[in-house]
Structure formats: C-alpha cells, structure tokens
Design brief:
486 residues, alpha+beta, D-Amino Acid Oxidase, Chain A, domain 2, 3 domains, 5-stranded antiparallel sheet, 22 strands, 30% helix, globular
C-alpha cells in the first residue's frame, strides 16, 4: 500500500458521491472517490423504489424540498446524455377512506408551497379511468405527472463511468478508518493506503457521522431505517401503469406500487428503525405487511407473482433533515449528511451546490477543455429488433450466446460489464449493469455460468469469485479435489 495524492477526495460512492464526482470532473483538478464496498452504488442507492420524485410532499422551505424540486427537471437531459432508462409515468395518490380524503387539500397545499403546480385533483371515476385496478372503494385522489421512474443501478453506474471517462479515480474495497488535518489539507487513512487531499467531501451515507467524528464533529448521529420491497414478475396480470401512492401518515409515506423501466413492479417499502447497519435481511412480518398494505390500493396484488425481495437501509440523521455543511475551523471539509429516501433524485442538485461550496473554499474551477458530456451504455440485446440482433452477432459472436434466459442477457453484455470503468467484479455487479439474474429464476440458470466468465475475464481463480464482495465467495474448490483431500 502506498500513498495517493488528489485535489478532492470524495468518501462514498453512492448516488450523491458519484454525481458530485461527475460535476467536479468538468474542471481541471484531480478527483478520487473511495468506498468501503466493492462497487459503486452504496447502500440506499441500490435498494430503493427507483422513483425520481417531484418533491410535492417534501417539507416546504427545507433543503430537501429545494434540492429535490430543482433536480427533477434535470433528469431528462442527464438520462439522455448518459443512456439511462427513464420514464415520466406520473403518480396517482389514492384516498380510500373518508379520513384520507380529508387529507388531500393539505397535500395539495404542500405541493403548492413546494412550487409544484401541476398536481391535480381526481374524482373517484377519474382515478378508475386511468387506473382501473385500483381499489373500487377509492373516494378521490391526486395526479402528480412529474413523478418518474429510472433504473437506479444504471443511474449510479453511468454517472461513475462518465466521471471515470473524465479522469476521476475510483477506489473500491477502500474503507476510511481515520481522517486528520495535515499540511496543505487532509490525510485519510484507509484499508488501501493513505490518501492526501486538499479537499474532502463526506458523502458516506450511513457512516457520515463516523467520518465527521474523525475530525471532532460529534453533533449528530446516523442510524439505518430498513425498507423492505417485493419485486413482481413482469408476466403478472397486473395492469398498473402509474406509480400508485397511499395517503401518507405522520409516521410513514406508506407502501407504494410502482412500475419499473424494465416492465415489472415494485411494492413497498417498510420503515423499520434499526441500530445494526448490516441488517439487510428481509423478514416474514415485513413482507406480509407489504402485501397487506399494497392490496388496500390494488386488490389484485398476489404474492404468487413475487420473484424477489430485498431490503435497503436509509441513513436517518438526528437532528434530521438534509445537511450540506462547511466548517470555519476545517477549511476544505464538506459534509453531506441526512440525504436519504429522496437522495437519488436530489443527488444532481446536491452535487451542484457542493461544487459551489468547494469553490468558495478555494477549489480551482477552471473548466476542462475536453470534458466528455455523454456516455453510451451497453447495448441491450433483449430490446433490439431482429435486424439489430443479427448485426450484433456478426460483429461479436458472443452476442449469440444467451446466458440469462429470463432477461435475455448475452455473454457479450456480461463481458462488457466486466471491462467497463468502474467494472463489475462479482455477480451482483453484473446484475446491476445488465440485469443477468434479475428475472424470474433469480440466477438459477445463469448463476453458474457467469462466475466462470468473471474468472476468465478477471484472471482470477473461481474460489475468488463472490456474489457481492469479500465474505460472499461462492466456491471453495473443485469437488473431485475435495474428495481426494478427504
């Protein structure tokens, strides 16, 4: 392990960290992003509802409201430039009971206070007209046209790839274990060596309080709030075209139903306050709660069509709210904390504000002459017409080998995912980039072929291939050799 040198060190490769890295890569400076995990995407950024929010229900006059409302319109161009699946499907907020119906004017007033003026009332008949499968007892609703869906995996990956194309260095499997003021800036001690930087940005999410504590900042803490989800197969007889939202309570926004850009549906999440930041497990109680609440909105929801469940941990800050802080006694240090359930959306505007704050602290802002604005994604074989598929196979025969039958993912796509920068290093990294293993059989077929390709392309033994990094290795040796040892 040696010593790394950079102008700006970003701790955390979730949506906020990589969005900031891309924004900073517009300037002629050195940028490094580190993360304790073995891939970009963080924790909350890869386990969420995949919704780009309008901010209609955010606390008015808050930093969250400001960043979410301003970021939402930025996604059309960003997703076009970076080749990310994105759809403005709109949302229906459905009031089932008389008490919920009485809340609609308050929600409408909050939307107006947040400068979201295209939210409209819906009568019961209007709700049923645009979403026939909603509970027949619905009394009224609101339509929020700006609520949208995105592929959150590819959003983070594409931001990181574009940042890397513009010179940003990514170090994964790199946990910062200490951070100190040093001559000319800061010195971070990490599991991959020391890093010297003029500026440090704390975008560590669940570990934001720990990073700030290294510098003596101990005026807040972060704990995980678990959100469990269920994934409904695209083959399910479910005619839900918009995001379906419940009327929120004082405790929770409730369980939603949302289509995905890939044709299936998500239902959830739960909201469970935890202490253990490693509690990624789902629970029987949580999954049953999701089904029960989702059926109140759409009675046709049937768990028989569930193909997967997952849980994400949102970083809940106390005191609460979004915080983008600089400190007079720590020039060059920027803390981004409390950015949780709407963080995927807010990441774009948070990044812009962070760039400005770094500039005010002296970070050079000379524009890069050769900045690369766009990124081309891995061509999706499944969504191509027959003529284009034939063209792919002629150029690269590996397109003719379908590895994942459920999602029609080819070996060519998997190989490209491995060799991108930053590239996939395990099964989950492949899954997030090209969807191999995300279909109905959940890698029951491709899960035994992809490790061999990872081993071949990375030049490592099969024993080193994992599902999601260190500690999740899939193999311990060849069966015949193991028998001989016995």
């Amino acid at each position: 392990m040696g010593i790394y040198y950079t102008d700006v060190l970003i701790i955390g490769a979730g949506a906020v960290g990589v969005a900031l890295a891309r924004e900073l890569s517009r300037f002629a400076i050195e940028i490094m992003v580190v993360d304790r995990l073995n891939d970009v995407g963080g924790d909350a950024s890869k386990s969420n509802s995949a919704i780009i929010h309008t901010g209609f229900d955010a606390p008015p006059n808050s930093l969250e409201s400001t960043t979410v409302v301003r970021a939402n319109p930025m996604f059309d161009k960003l997703c076009s430039d970076l080749d990310i699946p994105f759809r403005r499907v709109g949302a229906v907020l459905a009031a089932i009971t008389e008490e919920e119906e009485k809340e609609l004017p308050k929600i409408m007033a909050r939307a107006r206070a947040n400068h979201i003026y295209d939210v409209n009332y819906l009568t019961a008949s209007q709700v049923h007209k645009i979403e026939p499968s909603i509970n027949p007892k619905v009394r009224a609703g609101l339509f929020i046209p700006g609520e949208s869906i995105v592929d959150p995996f590819l959003l983070v990956v594409a931001l990181a790839e574009n940042a890397a194309d513009n010179g940003v260095t990514f170090l994964t499997d790199c946990e910062v274990v200490d951070l100190k003021i040093s001559k000319g800036g800061f010195r971070a001690e990490s599991t991959r060596g020391d890093i010297k930087a003029r500026f440090v940005v704390n975008a560590a999410g669940l570990a934001a309080d720990q990073v700030s504590a290294f510098l003596g900042i101990k005026d807040f803490n972060v704990h995980p709030r678990r959100g469990q989800f269920q994934v409904i197969d695209r083959a399910a007889p479910l005619e839900v075209k918009h995001i379906i939202l419940p009327v929120p309570t004082l405790i929770s926004k409730g369980k939603l139903i949302a289509p995905t850009v890939h044709g299936n549906w998500l239902i959830g999440p739960t909201a469970e306050e935890l202490e253990d930041p490693s509690s990624h497990n789902t629970t029987r109680e949580g999954l049953e709660e999701i089904i029960a609440e989702a059926r109140k909105l759409v009675p046709a929801i049937d768990p028989v069509w569930t193909i997967s469940q997952y849980a994400g941990l949102r970083p809940v800050r106390t005191p609460g709210g979004y915080h983008l802080r600089t400190f007079t006694k720590l020039p060059g240090y920027l803390e981004l904390s409390g950015i949780r359930s709407t963080g995927i959306t807010a990441s774009l505007s948070v990044a812009r504000i962070a760039v400005q704050k770094l500039s005010e602290m002296g970070n050079p802002s000379k524009p890069k002459i050769n900045y690369i604005e766009k990124r081309t994604g891995i061509p999706c074989f499944r969504d191509s017409n027959n003529r284009r598929k034939e063209k792919f196979i002629r150029r690269n025969p590996l397109y003719g080998h379908v590895l994942c039958r459920c999602e029609t993912v080819t070996e060519a796509e998997v190989v490209q995912a491995i060799h991108r920068n930053p590239g996939a290093r395990d099964l989950d990294g492949i899954k997030r980039r090209v969807r191999a293993g995300l279909g109905r059989c959940q890698a029951g077929f491709c899960g035994m072929q992809i490790p061999q390709i990872l081993s071949r392309e990375l030049g490592v033994s099969m024993e080193k291939i994992s599902k999601k990094g260190s500690g999740s290795e899939m193999f311990i040796g060849k069966t015949k050799s193991l028998r001989k040892k016995r």
